Amino acid sequence: MVILVGPPGSGKGTQAEFICKKFGIPQISTGDMLRAAKRAGTLDPKYLAIMDSGKLVPDEAIIELIDGRLKEDDTKDGFLLDGFPRTVPQAEALDALLSKKGLKLDAVVQLDVPRELLEERLVNRRTDLNTGKIYHLLYNPPPEGAKLEHRADDMPDKVRTRQSAYEAQTAALLPYYEAKALLRRVDGVGKPDEVTARLEAALA
Length: 204
Known about the structure:
Elements: E1 2-5, H1 12-23, E2 27-29, H2 30-40, H3 45-52, H4 59-69, E3 80-82, H5 88-100, E4 107-112, H6 115-123, E5 125-128, E6 134-136, E7 148-149, H7 156-170, H8 173-179, E8 183-187, H9 192-203
Parallel strand pairs: 1-3, 1-4, 2-3, 4-8
Antiparallel strand pairs: 5-6, 5-7
Helix pairs in contact: 1-9, 6-7
C-alpha cells in the first residue's frame, strides 16, 4: 500500500499509473472521486462550492469516500492513494481507518517540483471530456477536434490558491511519515520516464 503525495501539477497521475501497473494495484485518487461525484451530482452542495473555489474539501468527506472505495474487491491486494492525506490530522484519520481494516502502509512517496514549474504545468492543462485523458497545450497537445475542458481549479488565480493551501497544510505531513520511516522523496522535474526511473529506485 503506497501513498503518492506532491503539490498540484507534480505529475502524480502519470507516476500513479506506473506504480499501479508495476504492482498490479488500483489507484484511489481522491481528486478523481470528488470530480466523479461532482459530475454525477452526488457531491454535497457545500463541498461543491468549496471545491470550485480552489480550497480543500473537508476531511470527513474524503475519509468517507476512501472507506467506501476500500470495500471493493480490487483493493484486497493493496492500493495506491493519490491526493490524500495532506495534513497530520488526515494522516491520523487514515491510519485509524486502515488499522480498523487490518491494513498498513508500505511507503509514502513525495514528488518534489519547484512552484514556478507547477504553475506552468497546471495553467496549460486540459482534459478531454470524451476520454478523460489529460493533455498539456505546450508539451502534450491534444488531437484536433478534441472536446476539451479547462478545469476551474486550473485557472491562474485558483492554481495559486491551491499551491498556497497545499504548502500551508502539508508542512507537518512529511515529518510525520519520516518519523515512521515511510517517506521516500523523489525529484519530480524532468521527462515522465526520468521521474519514473527515480520512483522505481525509491520503491525498490
